[in-house]
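Problem statement: downstream parser choked on a complex file, so we are re-checking the raw output for the adenosine-5'-diphosphate run. The parser issue turned out to be on our end (a line-ending mismatch), but while we're here, posting the original submission so the record is complete.
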Amino acid sequence: MAQRQFDTVTVETVQGDIANQPDLGAIVSAANAELRIGGGVAGAIHRAAGPGLEKECIPLGPIRPGKAVISGGHNLPNAHVIHCLGPVYGRDEPSDQLLASCYRKALLLAEKKGIVAIGFPAISTGVFGYPIEEAAAVTLKAVVEVTPSLDAVRTIRFVLFSDADKAVFDEALMAL
Ligand code: ADP
């Protein structure tokens, strides 16, 4: 695990499954606009949460790129799921600002709920095609810009599916 402290917040990276992070108050989904089950991160989260999650989510959608909404965690060990719609790379512009907005909005929602520890996947880097190096730089910059204003959130964990993606996030984290 790589870790750095920014103000009162620990930012860390792990290799793993975002749907299996039992010590976090909230996990973030790389959602589709309709907040339906889908594949990738959203599929893993919905499968672990059970059908109640989709039932709660559908009335909250559709959402626009860069936006986030919050739901309960249902059968997950986490109290909340925050659903972000990342930009499709090369289509939703400006993609860097929309990607940064996902992280800012998710952290604002977490603050409002008093969530202490939150986990993020690498939003937009799967089927939405955002190159992992660019995404890591935009993502970590966005998160670190918000840390001075966080009162509740104390841990921000990036859960990367592959060792290669974790190595890219580690490098971007140490470069900040
Ligand atoms: P998007 O549609 O926003 O691109 P995806 O779900 O397709 O979202 O993928 C986002 C990133 O999450 C990709 O890097 C993918 O490898 C990774 N990923 C897929 N499943 C999981 C999982 N269960 N836990 C953590 N990361 C995952």
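For whoever reads this later: The mean pLDDT is 98.
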